[in-house]
Write a structure and sequence with these properties.
The complex is a heterodimer.
Chain A lengths: L23 H30 L7 H7 L3 H29 L3 H28 L2
Chain B lengths: L15 E10 L9 E10 L4 H12 L18 E4 L2 E4 L5 H4 L2 E5 L6 E3 L2 E2 L2 H9 L19 H5 L18 H5 L6 H11 L7 H8 L13 H5 L6 H14 L3
Parallel strand pairs in B: 1-5
Antiparallel strand pairs in B: 1-2, 3-4, 3-5, 6-7
Classes of the chains: A mainly alpha, B alpha+beta.
Chain lengths: 132, 248
């Protein structure tokens, strides 16, 4: 059988082609784009319900309890919480990598920011799950 | 497209104007930090900012230091911050930028003297993206053919003159010198999307690092600064997409 010489433009000319090219930075960038779009709509709906349809002064435990009768609102709120925190923390990660240059300061600032985000996520999630 | 030269408009090109220049100066042998000095020179409206700088250097203060070579917007030696924007001094006319000029060295690179900066970090980042054709195979006694469509894909990024206007206008680069910067990505783009090149994967791997394309926050400063009119931000986005979809 005659061997075929592949054109240099051919994608499979390189023998050691890896399974995946994308890495954490790739996905973290994509996450920012996608979560940004989702958060835009989540925040709009949240803002409309909490500030236009109802007044914040009427946001009582009874109001939240009535709302959480429907588990979909729990999921909505949890999505807003987790996506908002992840999006915000990842954005801060970019900024810290750029602006906090000393290694010691970077460890301190990063652990503080990640710690606070983690605590907020834990407390928020706990509130949503255990609300009765 | 060639280097952009703005139209002189309705101003009399031969009219002599008093040009007031405020220049950020630094002499490493004397100064501990940069300081401002002011000059006034007579220039025609059709003169370039470089003409005014030459006038100062040749008739007022011979110690004023700046780089320039071709003086026609081709070599990319004389990038500087003119009234807050990165420009080539040789292609911006007095009638265009006005008679009150504030001139500083480009930002984000160490100043050597006056308007001269150390370009080595910039060139090191340029070299890091392997900015030359990689084609290991032997094409025989003939050219490496390329269709007009394939050539058009990277036409925009062939125009770069490495003046560093884009890279030194990038707010991320000012803060983080590890970022390869827009110019390096533009020059990587020129080969990544070249159908004859076989080094695409290596370049995409380099730009897929923390210091690569993901540092770009699309502030568009680079696109505005480019004296060659290269759509720099778009080129960066095309490289991002190539990495994301693993396809050029």
């Amino acid at each position: 059988m005659a061997s075929v010489i592949k054109s240099p433009q051919s994608r499979d000319v390189s023998p050691q082609r890896r399974a995946s090219r994308q890495n954490f930075e790739t996905w973290s960038w994509l996450f920012m784009r996608v979560s940004g779009i989702i958060l835009f709509f989540l925040a709009l709906v949240h803002f409309f319900i909490m500030h236009i349809l109802h007044d914040v002064t009427t946001t009582t435990v009874a109001f939240v309890a009535a709302r959480y009768q429907n588990p979909l609102w729990k999921i909505f709120d949890w999505l807003l919480l987790s996506l908002g925190l992840l999006h915000g923390t990842n954005g801060l990660r970019y900024i810290m990598d750029d602006y906090v240059r000393s290694p010691l300061k970077r460890v301190l600032v990063k652990s503080t920011v990640y710690g606070v985000s983690g605590i907020l996520f834990f407390v928020g999630t706990l509130t949503i799950i255990t609300f009765k | 497209m060639t280097t952009t030269i703005a139209k002189t408009g309705s101003v009399d090109a031969m009219e002599l104007l008093t040009v007031h220049l405020r220049i950020k100066r630094y002499n490493p042998e004397v100064d501990t930090k940069p300081h401002w000095e002011e000059f006034e020179v007579q220039q025609k409206a059709s003169d370039t900012v470089l003409n005014a700088l030459h006038n100062i250097k040749w008739t007022v203060d011979g110690t004023l230091s700046f780089r320039r070579s071709c003086a026609h917007g081709v070599c990319g030696s004389d990038a500087m911050v003119i009234n807050g924007e990165n420009k080539l001094s040789c292609v911006n006319l007095i009638s265009d930028v006005g008679t009150d000029l504030v001139i500083e060295p480009i930002r984000g690179l160490p100043v050597i003297k006056d308007l001269i900066v150390d370009m080595e970090p910039f060139f090191a980042q340029y070299r890091s993206v392997i900015p030359y054709l990689i084609a290991e195979d032997d094409p025989g006694y003939k050219e490496r053919y390329q269709s007009q469509e394939d050539r058009a894909r990277y036409d925009d990024t062939t125009k770069c003159i490495l003046c560093a206007c884009c890279t030194t206008s990038c707010p991320v680069y000012w803060a983080n010198g590890e970022y390869v910067g827009p110019a390096a990505i533009v020059n990587a783009h020129r080969f990544i999307f070249d159908s004859r090149d076989q080094g695409t994967e290596r370049r995409l791997d380099i730009l897929n690092q923390k210091s690569g394309v993901w540092r770009c926050r699309t502030s568009f400063n680079c696109t505005e600064a480019c004296p060659r009119g290269i759509k720099v931000t778009q080129a960066i986005e095309e490289v991002k997409r190539a990495i994301l979809y693993d396809r050029v």
